[in-house]
Fold this protein.
Amino acid sequence: MIKVITIDGPASSGKGTVAKILAAQLGFAYLESGAIYRALGWWVNKHYPEQDVSDAQVVDLIASMQLEFKAGLIWLNNEDVTEQLRAESIGMLASKYSSIAEVRARLLQFQRDFAKVPGLVTDGRDMGSVVFPNANLKVFLTASAEKRAERRYKQLHQFDKAVTMGAILQDIITRDEQDSQRSVAPLSYDSSYRVLDNSELSIDETISLIKAWL
């Protein structure tokens, strides 16, 4: 039997870091669903830089995407795009394009194919609600917008000294609104989830609690 743990939550809640470490500790496969949509955002932007793009154009580009997760890196059509996908502008595009119903439908089976013996840990915004609704454990990981902005600032400031806390906080608030208000697979949770606010918890404490739930 394949065990599946989904970790959903808003931007910069730490779900990616937690899911990756948890998967390694359990010996499970790992799927960063957000990277799929970020890769699509980067791919669309590469073809239509700074242009308005129709839903149909976005959907058409999916067929030409070859995405691989290898050795901790993300490869798109044989190009290492790991660092490029971390840009805030790409994250905003990912949030925008992920609201297109046909985009989500096209990428659904791609994500489900990552579930292999003995198990899978995946993070995203609709992993438990849409992609793996029958997962063994569904976690909604969250934290205050201020705490998430602080974490994101520390991460980005290493590479870009021009970033500001105010701008990052506004980006997070905007993305929260986009993700929770979209008509297709909005960011949400129900009674089948375990809700974990890790505003005051360390990564290790967060992981320990999830393992106890499992």
Summary: The first helix runs from residue 15 to 26.
